[in-house]
Amino acid sequence: MYILEEKIWFWLLLVIPAIILLYTGVVIWQRQAQKKFADSVLLKKLSPDKSYFKPILKITITCLAIFFLVFALVNPKVGTKLETVKREGVDVVFAIDVSKSMLAEDIAPNRIEKSKQLVTQIINNLGSDRVGIIAYAGSAYPQLPITTDYSGAKLFLSQMSTDMLSSQGTAISEAIELAKTYYNDEEQTNRVLFIVSDGEDHVGESTDIAEQAREEGIQIYTIGVGKLEGGPIPLKRNGRIVGYKKNQNGETVITRLDAQTLRDIAAEANGEYIDGSSTAAVVETVQNLLNGMDKKEFEAKQFADFKDRFQWFLAAGLLLLFLDIFLLDKKTNWLKKLNLFNEQ
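-> structure tokens emitted (344 positions)
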């Protein structure tokens, strides 16, 4: 486990491409000026010890030195000690629809990216609740077991896409069935499942499964992503739209938000339907819901002691600068004897 204490110093890395551009410009200018003065044969005779490799090596070392010194300013810290802490919260599982209909762009930037934004912002505003993530389309997949590691949760969330499951379709019931296995704490009284979806359900057993989930103490809240008027499903190649998905009759498929199905599922499991159009409104609603629930105390492991590691990067940067001082532009004698380029 590590943290970066002063990330703002990363902006100094922009100095590296600036130095490379400046160096390239100077080399081009020097060569043009030398051509006006003499041809290449005469130049070699006038400066036989001039090396074309050494200046490139020097600029490379300089850039590496800057890179390490910037990292020293950022001050990476490595966790060295794990300790057990007591936290209070509820178990929250997010089931995110990754079927192809989530590519529709009736809500910006599209349904799947909007879903990821919503869950990310909800996680950012959680206190000490445990979270888990499920991906589902024609089947359900456990993307992240329930955990208190919010950074890990957001990392796994960012990697979700409509290509991650080969079985297409939308089986909300399978996501609910899988979510039942997530709640591994028998003493936890508040078990919450958020289904983030456009509501398309090709299986049709969702309300029955939601009722069974309620009997096991799981509350289901549904977040609808998309518009009632819907939109086509774009087919992209290299990030560009090359067409839209069509049905067997060659007609463009229009996918629409099925809010009623999501309302029915939520109603069967003591939850409610939330309109996903406004991120701020969704986050506020979820916060109010979770704050109103009883919190259960549980133990979690976390890094408590972080040690500075800027010294390693500072030493590497200073060492490279030291080497750069003693590295001359002229050819070294032993390298000259090797004559790697068969120069006359």
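The two ends are 56 Å apart (CA to CA).
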